[in-house]
Amino acid sequence: MAKEFKGKLFVFSAPSGSGKTTIVRHLLKQEQFDLEFSISATSRAPRGKEKDGVDYYFLSRDEFFQKVKNDEFLEWEEVYSENFYGTLKTEVERIWAKGKHVIFDIDVTGGLRIKRKFPEETLAVFVKPPDINELLRRLKNRGEETDKKIAARIAKAPVELATAPQFDKIIKNYDLEVALKDAENLVSDFIGLTS
To answer: What distance in Å separates the CA atoms of residue 51 and residue 54, rounded to the nearest whole number?
Structure first.
């Protein structure tokens, strides 16, 4: 019987507006890495053009907590007031079954929990923004959220930034092209691809 594939886990965490999603999307396009995105589950409603099973698995609050009760999550938490997010165990199993490595775009607490559960298989990367003012500018430029939601994200940023030393690597996203190259090098090294 063939040995079950156990791939690598790449966790990218950062405060909102740091550029982690841009970096993760870039890495997913690099075919040599064999990465697939881990779709998180959430109790919040879809925003804009978000699709269930593509951007998130959208669950009702009751469905979410039934899965918590059934121990179906690798990690979960209340990221913002009344909005719960988590990583389903079946998501990692689904991606590994395809012989691919898993990449996460996830909050800092969830990212560190995955690292603790899979210490050998996980590379936890923190994406550091230039400063809080730059985060605020990026969040406002997105034009996706109310001032109240942006304020909540900015208020949370110093706590998230303080977790950076707990990650394996820190990418400083001051210049996007440099940050993308740094991310490619980290993934390549961790998978063991020769450059």
So the answer is: 5
141: Cβ–Cβ under 8 A, 6 or more apart, which residues?
Answer: none
CA dihedral 139, 141, 147, 148 (to 10 degrees): -20
Measure CA 40 to chain center: 9
The CA distance from 11 to 101, in Å, is 11
pLDDT of res. 1:
39
- Mean pLDDT split into 10-residue runs, the chain, 195 residues: 74 92 96 96 92 95 96 90 91 95 94 95 95 87 83 89 96 95 97 75
CB 161 within 8 A of CB 15: yes
Tokens of 147: 């001032």
Domains of the chain: 9-189 (3.40.50.300)
Decide the pairing of beta strands 35-37 and 57-58.
unpaired
Residue written as tokens 């996203």?
173
